[in-house]
# Entry
Amino acid sequence: MTPRLDSRWRRYLAFFGPRPVRDVDDELAFHFQARVDEYIAAGMDADAARDATLERLGDLSRYRGETLAIEQQEQRRRTMSDVIHSIIGDIRFGARQLGRNLPLTIAALLCFALGVGANTSIFSVVNAVLFRPLPFPDSDKLVVVTEGVTKLAADISSISAPDLLDYKETEGRAFQTLALVRRRDATLMINGEAEVIPGAALTPSTFKVLRVTSAVGRVFIDADTASSAPFVVVISDGLWRRRYGADRAMIGKQITFSTGATAEVVGIMPAGFAFPLPGLGIPVADIFFPFRFTPGVLAQRADNFGAVALGRLQNGVSMERAEAALAEIARQMPRRYPESWGKSQSRGGNLLIHVKSMRATAIGESRRPLLVLLGAVGFVLLIACINVASLFVARASARKREIAIRKALGATRGRLTQQFLAEALLLLAAGSALGLIAAHWGTRALVALAPGNFYSSFDVSLDARVLAFTGGVTILTALVFSILPGLRGRPSDAEQALRAERSATANRTRQEGRRVLIVSEVAFALVLTIGAGLMLRSLARVRAVNPGFEPENLVTFFTSLPAAAYTDVDRIKLTEQQIVQRLREIPGVTSASAASGLPMQGDWLIVFTPEGPPQSQLPVATNTLVLPGYFEAMRIPLRAGRLFNDRDTKSSPNAVVINETMARKYYGNGNPIGRQFKWGPRDSPGPLSEIIGVVADVKHTTLDEEPSNVVYHAVFQQDTGVNVSMYRGLSYVVRTRIAPASIAASIRTAVRGVDPKLVVLNIRPMDTIVGQTIETRRFNTLLLGLFAALALSLAATGVYGVLQYSVIQRKREMGIRIAIGATSSNMIGLIVGQAVRLAALGVVIGLVGAFALTRVIRALLFDTDPLDGLTFVASAAVLVLIAVLSSYLPARRALRIDPIIAMRAE
Amino acid sequence: MSTSLDLLQGTLDLLVLKTLSWGPAHGYDVARWIQDVTGDVLRVEEGSLYPALHRLEKRKLLKSSWGLSRNNRRAKYYEITAKGREALASEASTWSSFTKAVTTVMTSADRPGWAK
# Structure
């Protein structure tokens, strides 16, 4: 009995490699059959022969397993090239698998891309603001220098300009260079229209401190600051493109200001140069002037703190040492300048000097909101990942049979994992690539939409850290969520799966996995929703805050009377009165007036002396010079006494109106009317004023601030001193019955009716200005709300997907239920009830999470408890509602199942 | 793995090698031959032959090829290799000295010293 070899069989083996399972099974089958045949031949009947054979063979499945194990030992020792080939094969196979269920794949892809896109955008910004150095060379040496006096009851985050010349003595020792920056907006005439351009005056050394230079033309040189030098400006790339059509020939050209003065454009800064940085108290400028130390500026030593000093530290010098070097000079100031600092010391106390890192100044208060947003967006990504994971788990169970066969065929656990990983990586890499593209635009949108150009001062471009972040997120997600299905199912499961594919009710362990997914999605989404809900509630509370006046139907604008044409103080006052009179004559206008500054538009702080014993600290108040009728036009309620009227002039006793906070703080419980007030420190020569009225508190800088001291003086009682500059330009308020937008033309006509040369600037409705003060809060709330909405929709999709799949899987069970008479409400109740139970568990976990996490955002909330009951309850209700809605559709689908088809389905 | 199992496995290997030393055969033939020769005293579970056959093949003591059985079924035939014959020779001598030693002990009439 020589074995005859089947040559075709040999060729087959050579081509496809050994097929151990089939071979072993054939071998065993042959043995089994041969033994049965023999028993039958010996006279047994077929059944008995079978039983006897099985008994003789022993534990067949054990022997089969052992034999297969022996065969497979060799297969595990694979060469490197086998591995590479298998990876390529896996990727191809993965692509085919993903392609087989395109809608599901695309849904997962989009979920992940959305998550990665949102995450990368926020991370880019966080990275730029919190982690990356400022976009200047060697930027860790950049510092901000500020002055203060010990007894002043307010922070001065700036410096008196002339002092810088003294501090410059430390250049070469503590500092490489020091520079001075001051706000200086310009009113440009562009195509006959006046436009206020935010601007700054800079010492030429500013460019040395920052180590930046112009893209076209030159920056300032010391000669530009001489009073005899021609007037020159440097403009930003933005202004150059927006207003001058990016014309390179602009260099050397003259630009015209509304006053009629001209200046030569000597340089254009590069794109991306956003200066001054946030935190310096000066908006990002589009036009730069050389800072000139005129006699007027030099006279303001120890008086006007309107400038910001920047410095670049000398190599190897710490901030502390630099501060010590400056403090040494500050100590000498009273002796050097007895007229200014000498006098100041006796009332204000010693001059203090502070050196702060420019980065810390620029970041300011933005760290916490940014981290909260990053956390929120991380939750969104987590939910997106769970969606992707549920896709993989669902597909893994759908491919139970395939996996079982592959396992039985000798695929090791590692081999299967590798294959799932390839598939997951393929999907997630594509998702990440899409997400990165989305992030590119997302980051741009964030920078463009953020209030106050905040992010434009930071370098938000994609860098290695951002890419590593996104890559890391992708790989981690792929690992965690793709290995899980690969690990499922032990070899015995595999055999079972091969043998029987029928299970009238769905497998319990697989259901478990999906339950975990639903519960965690609901929990994460709930935490986010609660966070966003608290922010929204805060925003609503801030918006509902009474600013102390009525911003609705109030239009404001600014007009300045040029110093060249208006030299006489009385003429200025008369002209201003005429303008107000003309405004009141406009049809639809109910009242009009003007003030040196309006709420929410910058502060003018003065030191004052209340009646009574000396205070340990110099009291500070916001000062406002007003024309008669101001309180009436603003509708600021009078609490006691009277308001200014036309008889409060230079010939009558000096009068002031104060706000309630100041009255309470400095004039106690008694009636403040008739008591005394002094502008300036106790020993200053200024005249005493009498308090004639107390008005309601007005929010002076932002809606979410605490009320502070405010004093109002009458413009008509001011003399010719420095204060002329404070009322030469006034902000006018016009209360109207008609739409604010339609009144602009009438306002221009009215002002030109007084003097055709006057320029009307910034006509804006007051409620817009008020809204702008809470823009950052609104922006952060908007983002958080957006993320919460994203989280909710992702969670809804996730729950829907999981339940939909579970209905398909339980078709047979559903079919049986329908066949034995389950009603449609039974069926809907079954599926929706299941979803709601899971959602409820998720809600409980989410509530606990929110309970722990919302205290993180306590600092961002306004008048809102981080554990606000209504927000918690409403958010939980939203989540449960979403669970109901997203399970109702799959439930309806279940109802359409035809019992006969369903029961045949498996 | 316990010694007794090793012994058993080794014994089965030895039986298989010995069987195949007569010529190529498939698993069923091997089982039948062992059954016939021992008069069915060694009730080897026939399934256990297959792990043994495959293990011996892996150790290159056997080689296999697919062929057709007498009644034209596809069957796997095993054949002993030269290495297998060497192994059989050395295993067989180990086995006979082992059984001889055990037999000597079992049939000895000499009492041990402590029992005298």
